[in-house]
Amino acid sequence: MTATEFSTDLGVDPDLIAMMDGVFAEHRRTREQTGPVVGDAALWQRLDGLGLLRLTGAQESGGSGAGWPQAAELLAAAVRHGIRIPVAEHDLLACWLLETAGLPGDAAARTVCVVDGAGTARRVPWASAVDRVVVVWRDGADYRLADLDVDDRRVQISRGVNLIGEPRDDIGVETAALTGAPVAPAAVHTLGLKSALVRSVQVCAAMDAALALVVEYTSQRLQFGRPVSKFQAVQHMVADIAAEAALARAATEAALAAAVASEWAPDKLDKLEFLVAAARSCTGHAASTVTRNAHQAVGAIGTTREHRLPEFTRAALAWRSEFGSVRSWDARLTDAALAAGPAGLWSLIAD
């Protein structure tokens, strides 16, 4: 499967994209893996050596100084090759939040969670598979955070998994026993939007990969002496897949472009929330159409372990419900549009 640039208008170096794609392709090939690769210490070390583990971190703190367009390409490359590791949770979320609070980060694998008043968080990505967890809790009108080892006695982890076997664990933290560092409420709000956009990028990459498989299969599979792709009903299904995937990608790239342009500035978060909500709504609904039509077009072989289609369709369905359900993002999008009113809605969409 060839690489597809995720953010073609955001100036990502094609050589960098090819390098990322090659790293993941080689890793999967050398492991002779028939299914998705979930977590791998050797790959983590290699990404660190290539400067991809803290791709968006500031150079003065040991990062590579790149941005979200490059990170989106890294996430998309991992999805294409079925490599599932917490690189987004580590770089774009946990280590970014530490950097925001003026705390150091390193190559130790991290995830992040915001706990409730009882010190609990549900379905935290990768908590049982990482080295450290950045815990955020409310402290009056503000927030505090602590970077904790997962073996810390103040942290309790109950293991769980999502639809594709990635760790999604419940966490309990004794926040009363922590001091922590202050973190601004705007940063916590931004963390939620960044988390949501990460999943939108991943769902888009999964749907693009599913589309590529469907086009390949229907072009090669013969029925009644001609390729399946020549049948009008199949053409309609494939066209719907392509249209829904393109709409989701366009909405996600719009949110990504706005985030890059604004540098996630606190005074731009209302606009970003609208765009992220639109991206999440589009990707969530598209995942249903893409999954249904892809499996109809490919047929029974697409449900087997030997075929890669479920690797992407199941991932799209799993990721679309994380960091907010499709319904919740539909509601946030509607609320933002109503709040903007007739005079302000166009500026949310077009500016």
Automatic annotation (TrEMBL):
Cofactor(s) demanded: FAD
UniProt keyword terms in alphabetical order: FAD, Flavoprotein, Oxidoreductase
InterPro entries from the UniProt entry: AcylCo_DH-like_C, AcylCo_DH/oxidase_C, AcylCoA_DH/ox_N_sf, AcylCoA_DH/oxidase_NM_dom_sf
Record keyword Transferase present: no
GO molecular function: acyl-CoA dehydrogenase activity; flavin adenine dinucleotide binding
Domain of life assignment: Bacteria
Keyword Cell division: no
Family assignment from sequence similarity: Belongs to the acyl-CoA dehydrogenase family.
Protein name as annotated: Acyl-CoA dehydrogenase
Lineage: Bacteria, Bacillati, Actinomycetota, Actinomycetes, Mycobacteriales
